[in-house]
Amino acid sequence: MRMRKKTWAEPFLNENNHFVIQEPQNNQGQWKKILNCEKLHVEIGCGKGDYFIQMSSMDSTVGWIGIEKDRNVAAVAAKKAIDLGNSNMLMIALDAENIDSWFAPNEIDVIHLNFSDPWPKAGYRKRRLSHGKFLEKYRNLLTSEGQIIMKTDNQGLFEFSLAEFSQNGWILEEVSVDFRRVDHPEDAISEYEAKFMALGQPIYRAVFALKV
Ligand code: SAH
Predict the structure, then answer these.
(1) 91 DSSP β-pair partners
(2) Distance, CA of 102 to CA of 26 (rounded, Å)
(3) How many other CB atoms are there within 10 angstroms of residue 186's CB atom?
(4) How far separated are the first and last CA of the chain, in Å rounded?
(5) With bands split at pLDDT 50, 70 and 90, how would you rate the model's confidence at 102?
């Protein structure tokens, strides 16, 4: 659901341009150095940030970048992250359509797609963050050992994604159609995930890689 416009959001994002990077193309190839980390994880469509913010507290050698195109929502995430103050995270409040100009080839270790918009109508498939058009971009940005980890409540999106990754030459390393049936303390619960879990809905999860 679209959030009502927040008048504070745009000024807040602009004032905090040390955290919400306005021209990410200028940092291409430099992110690990900037975040002082060994591994780089990127969450595309991070919403209000619950996932990457919690994950950034688990291991300081992993750097996190949250990407969110809705600037009202991104401002809520940025506020939370800045208040917490971990130095191993940053945000980009822009459309991931241009992700290939922000990162260098082989720069990202893991891309996370948590509860991405399902875009159920046939005419909008290209907007899905797991569409072949996006997978081509991700392939270039990931290291050779790189992974994409996807979680969703949406069966249709999950089925589409499994086929799309497979057709584009990716390997399915792990798959679960009820990921939270057992505890996974190593993996934070995102905002949307918490809502679907409260409704008793199963969480689908898959890990894709470029090679075995
Ligand atoms: N990951 C969060 C939010 C899921 S909702 C959670 O699990 O709680 C999906 C989010 O993806 C929305 O906030 C939407 O604005 C964002 N999004 C969708 N397409 C995007 C794109 N192309 N670039 C950046 N963000 C996108």
Answers:
(1) 20, 66
(2) 7
(3) 8
(4) 38
(5) very high
Ligand 1, from 71, 129, 187: best to mutate by most atoms within 8 Å of Cβ?
A: 129
Q: What architecture does CATH give domain 26-210?
A: 3-Layer(aba) Sandwich (3.40)
Q: Check: CB of residue 73 under 8 Å from CB of residue 3.
A: yes
CA distance 49 to 66: 7
Sheet containing 39-44, strands listed edge to edge, beginning at the edge strand earlier in sequence: 89-92, 62-67, 39-44, 108-114, 142-152, 204-209, 171-176
Which amino acid would we find at residue 1? M
Q: pTM for this structure?
A: 0.97
The reply to whether 117 belongs to the active site is yes
Kindly name the residue from 59, 70, 100, 117 that is annotated as catalytic.
117
**Residue 113 in contact with residue 181, Cβ under 8 Å?**
no
What mean pLDDT do residues 61-82 have?
A: 98
Residue nearest to atom 26 of ligand 1 (CA): 45
Structure-token pair, residue 45: 């469509």
Distance from the CA of 73 to the center of ligand 1, in angstroms? 9
Q: Can you give the residue ranges of every domain in the chain?
A: 26-210
